[in-house]
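User: Assemble these into one structure.

Assistant: Restating your components, then the assembled model:
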Amino acid sequence: MIYGFNTFLLLLLVAPIVSLLCVKMKKARALSPIVLVVALLTGAATTGVSFWRGDRLSLDLSRLTPLPFALTVDRLSAFFLLLICAVSVPVVLYSASYIERHYEGLRRDGLWILLPAFIASMVLVVTASTGFAFLFGWELMTLLSAGLIMMEGDAGQRRHNIFIYLLMMHVGAAAVIGAFLLFLPHAPGLTFAAMRTVAAQMPQGMRTAIFLLAFLGFGTKAGIVPLHLWLPRAHPIAPSPVSALMSAVMLKTAVYAFVRFGFDFLGTGPAWWGYLVLAAGAVSGVLGVLYALAENDIKRLLAYSSVENIGIIFMAIGAAMVLRAYGAPSLAALALLAALLHAINHALFKSTLFLGAGSVSDATHTLNMEELGGLLNRMPVTGIAMLVACCSIIGLPLFNGFVGEWLAFRAFLGGSTLPPIAPAIVLPLVAGVLALIGGVAAACFAKLYGVVFLSRPRSEKAEHAREVPVLMQLGVALPAAACVLIGVFPAIVLWPLMTTISELMPGTAMPAQATSIATVLPWLALAVIAIVAVVALVRRTVRVTATWACGQPGLDARMQYSGTALSKPLRKVFSQVYRPDRAVNISPAGQPYFPETISYRSVRTTSFERALYRPAVDAVVAAAHRLRRLQTGNIQVYLLYLFLALVSLLLFMRFL
Amino acid sequence: MGLVDIAAAKTLASSAVFIFITLLLLASAKRTRTCIVLFSMQGAVVTAQILATAYVHRSAEAYAIAFLVLVIKVLAIPYLLLRIVDRLNMPREVKASTTSAQSVFITAALILLSFLVVQPYVRAFNIDEDMLAAAIALVLTGCFLMVSRKKALMQVIGLLVLENGVFLAALTSTFGMPLVIEIGIFFDLLMGVFLMGLFVFRIRDTFDHLDVSKLRRLRG
């Protein structure tokens, strides 16, 4: 299988070069998506087979590089590699049509060159088996994704957002590098195998430092609150296929890396590590979904929803760490199973949603919900795929989101059976938090789907929407189909995942809770299909009439519930979280009963984010101002700096 | 012991002193032309030393390198620089930010510093103390010339002196680098001088002066 893996890597590296060569040849342009899809399918097939056989694929390039550089695909890597390949295929198919329709010249060529490179960097991150290879891939992933965002343009506010993205990614990367460097004295080559063996013998303080740095670094990449600031800024401004990749796949590389550090390297830690992750996950989940609810821009809503789902994943990971620390391995396995399953579920439905959002903006040229409506009739395939994705993300049974959240609930509630009092209280409470998240998410996506796809068009643009080209439909439909498949037959994912987890936590077997749900769901699906069929047969006639308008002469689109109105009750309940800044402007001012114009503005303030980040930003700016005095602009002064550095180094070497 | 052997030994023994003399003269020189001639003489000293090393170690490669140094550093580069000075038709002073006396004093201090810092290496690797100190002094003085002289041409000369130092350090510590690398470095150097010559003309044409201390708009 190593040949298959090498072919995959080679094709993946060839793909950007093909795109580069295609710049001049118009006819050959279809080649770059084809090469990329072939590469990804090769990768998926190879990884799938080697996963099934339990092979370890490895590729050691240390002879060619200054520091040890090797790739190894063990089961955990293979799982995430499969995720990358599986989600990238529909995204690339979608891009083949989307990029041609939206971009031309340099931007199109740039996207086709950077996109394969970006996928390759993510592959490098999940397969790397040395610290150097991992960090190389990690940095490359950040830079290439920023490059892809810039292909959309970098004027004004966009540039500021990209800057914040890069800034936070570099702070995160610094923490990640720190986590690796702490291993350096014990494992000089920074190979994962060596790190795994030395981690157990390291002093507890050092292990805690590594854990905290890893959590900080990977949490920044994953978008854990309060390190999530970049996420709702960067995702919405990227081209839709890139948003899909970033949200569905790139965030998962952080989950991979965190599981790699937390479970593979560090093994069992003290319980408070788990509680920390659990708390951060719960805060992210709740705040993410509440912020999502208040958004009226589809892609911003989806970006906040990513924060929420990452929160759920980290809650499950945290629960697994807690349960493991208290010596309940089978429950810990269940929680980790829920986390990894939710990771792949989120990748599938979030890629559908982001690609669907791209289709909506392609058809209507807007992403503002208040201008959309009635798209289901106009774009049936996209509409149904989006319905499937929305049902999945809120965790309705028979869709994949349900399985992951169900397992998470079972793991949290199972915590009540532990003898120590702390987890027996905390874990069931977390189940309550998850229920809250699920409820608000249901409201949020009911709003998204109801306002955008149902109801009547709220603008001319939505009125004249047309279904997108076949490739784009395919890109949206494929992951949606996978959502249903996993929702009905979760066993196809659960078994491979359990094999992965038993490699991380030896001695654990498939938890009974997972087996039971996997056996029930197909029968449930059968029952639902039977009921639907019976109802369809019995009810033959459908009456189509106008909506009753209280006897008034006619309804128009402006009378419908708007997205803002739909979320109002919940925003009112959680007004402490939003702290909205409201203003009603009536003009002319003196006549409240006969106004000419009324405008209403309600903006969510980010008070806690400001309170957290402002001091840090101020300190950095002040330091930069002080350092600026060094920059005189005079060449000779710069030469003098060099000269002084040289002399002091010489003296340092001589006397110290 | 033949006459050539004695000459080689004497050269090896005394070339460091000659290098120090050229450095002190460079520091005190007030005219650009003098500096270029001094640089050429410095190159000649280095050539003599390579020849002596080549003779002592019976190395054919070293003869080739000596020839290259003679052609490039003693003849070609100084010739190019002198032509630039002629064609520039600008005031001839080096425009130092320190007086001659101060420059000489600082250079002397740098030479002392060089002797100070090479001690551990001399003992550890059994290298000729004077030569290594001369190499370090060349590097430091080259830096100092670049820092303290305001005219763009003097930055070029400072860099060349610095390069002499690097070359000499390589020669004394490892008996020179492989010939291919040396050729590459010489080629680089020649190209560098060409480029810097071009830039000097551009600076003159754009700003009507060569004073780099006035070029400070790069600052953000």
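The first helix of chain B runs from residue 3 to 28.
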